[in-house]
Amino acid sequence: MTSTEKMQVITKILDEKKANKIKVLKVSDLTLLADYFVICSANSTTQVKALSDNLQEQLEEKHNEEPVKREGNQGLNWILLDYSDVIVHIFYQETREFYSLEKLWADAEEIDLEEIIKE
Questions:
Q1: Confidence of residue 73 (pLDDT cuts 50, 70, 90)
Q2: What is the 3-state secondary structure (H, E, C) of the chain?
Q3: Residue (of 32, 24, 86, 92) closest to 59 by Cα position
Q4: Region 4-25: what's the mean pLDDT?
Q5: For labeling, which of 11, 24, 25, 45 is most exposed (least CB within 10 Å)?
Q6: What residues are paired with 88 via a beta bridge?
Q7: pLDDT tens, position by position, 22-45
Q8: Tell me, what's the pLDDT at 115?
Q9: Count of CB atoms situated within 10 Å of the CB of 70
Q10: Contact assessment for residue 81 and residue 58, using Cβ atoms and an 8 Å cutoff
Q11: 104 Cα distance to chain centroid
Protein backbone atom coordinates (compact mmCIF):
# COMPACT_ATOMS: atom_id res chain seq x y z
CA MET A 1 0.00 0.00 0.00
CA THR A 2 1.41 3.40 -0.94
CA SER A 3 1.62 6.18 1.64
CA THR A 4 -1.22 8.02 -0.12
CA GLU A 5 -3.46 4.94 -0.03
CA LYS A 6 -2.59 4.36 3.62
CA MET A 7 -3.40 7.99 4.47
CA GLN A 8 -6.77 7.68 2.72
CA VAL A 9 -7.66 4.45 4.54
CA ILE A 10 -6.67 5.95 7.90
CA THR A 11 -8.69 9.09 7.24
CA LYS A 12 -11.80 7.07 6.32
CA ILE A 13 -11.51 4.88 9.41
CA LEU A 14 -11.18 7.90 11.69
CA ASP A 15 -14.09 9.63 10.01
CA GLU A 16 -16.32 6.55 10.36
CA LYS A 17 -15.65 6.56 14.12
CA LYS A 18 -16.56 10.26 14.38
CA ALA A 19 -13.11 11.78 14.90
CA ASN A 20 -13.33 15.57 15.02
CA LYS A 21 -11.64 18.07 12.71
CA ILE A 22 -9.54 15.63 10.71
CA LYS A 23 -6.68 17.29 8.89
CA VAL A 24 -4.04 15.75 6.68
CA LEU A 25 -0.75 17.50 6.11
CA LYS A 26 1.62 16.41 3.36
CA VAL A 27 5.02 16.77 4.99
CA SER A 28 7.17 14.77 2.57
CA ASP A 29 8.80 17.93 1.21
CA LEU A 30 9.62 19.20 4.71
CA THR A 31 10.88 16.19 6.65
CA LEU A 32 12.13 12.63 6.35
CA LEU A 33 9.88 11.57 9.25
CA ALA A 34 6.87 10.73 7.09
CA ASP A 35 4.95 11.59 3.96
CA TYR A 36 1.74 12.53 5.80
CA PHE A 37 0.54 13.59 9.23
CA VAL A 38 -3.09 12.74 9.96
CA ILE A 39 -4.35 14.89 12.83
CA CYS A 40 -7.70 14.58 14.57
CA SER A 41 -9.28 15.22 17.92
CA ALA A 42 -11.80 13.67 20.28
CA ASN A 43 -14.19 15.00 22.90
CA SER A 44 -12.91 12.77 25.70
CA THR A 45 -9.92 10.64 26.62
CA THR A 46 -12.20 7.62 26.27
CA GLN A 47 -12.84 8.57 22.65
CA VAL A 48 -9.10 9.16 22.07
CA LYS A 49 -8.43 5.57 23.15
CA ALA A 50 -11.40 4.19 21.17
CA LEU A 51 -10.25 5.93 17.97
CA SER A 52 -6.72 4.63 18.43
CA ASP A 53 -7.77 1.07 19.24
CA ASN A 54 -10.23 0.91 16.35
CA LEU A 55 -7.73 2.31 13.86
CA GLN A 56 -5.05 -0.18 14.88
CA GLU A 57 -7.48 -3.08 14.80
CA GLN A 58 -8.87 -2.26 11.35
CA LEU A 59 -5.48 -1.58 9.77
CA GLU A 60 -4.08 -4.83 11.13
CA GLU A 61 -7.08 -7.01 10.23
CA LYS A 62 -7.96 -5.57 6.83
CA HIS A 63 -4.62 -4.24 5.56
CA ASN A 64 -1.96 -6.15 7.52
CA GLU A 65 -0.49 -2.84 8.76
CA GLU A 66 0.84 -2.46 12.30
CA PRO A 67 2.31 0.70 13.80
CA VAL A 68 6.08 0.85 14.05
CA LYS A 69 5.61 2.78 17.27
CA ARG A 70 2.76 3.85 19.53
CA GLU A 71 3.07 6.56 22.15
CA GLY A 72 0.74 8.31 24.57
CA ASN A 73 -1.24 5.53 26.23
CA GLN A 74 -0.61 6.87 29.75
CA GLY A 75 -2.65 10.08 29.85
CA LEU A 76 -4.69 9.50 26.70
CA ASN A 77 -4.49 13.20 25.83
CA TRP A 78 -2.42 12.55 22.70
CA ILE A 79 -1.82 9.19 21.06
CA LEU A 80 0.72 8.99 18.27
CA LEU A 81 0.64 6.02 15.89
CA ASP A 82 3.64 5.79 13.60
CA TYR A 83 2.89 3.83 10.44
CA SER A 84 6.30 4.70 8.99
CA ASP A 85 5.20 6.91 6.09
CA VAL A 86 1.99 8.11 7.79
CA ILE A 87 1.99 9.41 11.36
CA VAL A 88 -1.37 9.67 13.09
CA HIS A 89 -1.96 12.14 15.93
CA ILE A 90 -5.15 11.59 17.93
CA PHE A 91 -5.67 14.42 20.41
CA TYR A 92 -8.01 15.27 23.22
CA GLN A 93 -9.41 18.59 21.89
CA GLU A 94 -7.79 20.88 24.51
CA THR A 95 -4.43 19.18 24.04
CA ARG A 96 -4.66 19.69 20.28
CA GLU A 97 -5.29 23.39 20.76
CA PHE A 98 -2.34 23.66 23.17
CA TYR A 99 0.22 21.96 20.89
CA SER A 100 -1.20 23.35 17.64
CA LEU A 101 0.65 21.04 15.26
CA GLU A 102 -1.09 22.66 12.31
CA LYS A 103 0.68 25.95 13.11
CA LEU A 104 3.99 24.22 13.77
CA TRP A 105 3.79 22.58 10.33
CA ALA A 106 2.20 25.58 8.61
CA ASP A 107 4.47 25.16 5.56
CA ALA A 108 2.99 21.72 4.88
CA GLU A 109 0.40 21.25 2.17
CA GLU A 110 -3.05 20.58 3.60
CA ILE A 111 -4.80 17.79 1.70
CA ASP A 112 -8.39 18.39 0.65
CA LEU A 113 -10.40 15.59 2.25
CA GLU A 114 -13.64 16.20 0.36
CA GLU A 115 -13.03 13.34 -2.09
CA ILE A 116 -11.67 11.01 0.59
CA ILE A 117 -14.47 11.54 3.10
CA LYS A 118 -17.77 11.45 1.32
CA GLU A 119 -20.86 12.03 3.41
A1: confident
A2: CCHHHHHHHHHHHHHHCCCEEEEEEECCCCCCCCCEEEEEEECCHHHHHHHHHHHHHHHHHHHCCCCCEEECCCCCCEEEEECCCEEEEEEEHHHHHHHCHHHHCCCCEECCCCCCCCC
A3: 86
A4: 96
A5: 45
A6: 38, 81
A7: 999 999 999 999 999 999 999 999
A8: 86
A9: 14
A10: no
A11: 16
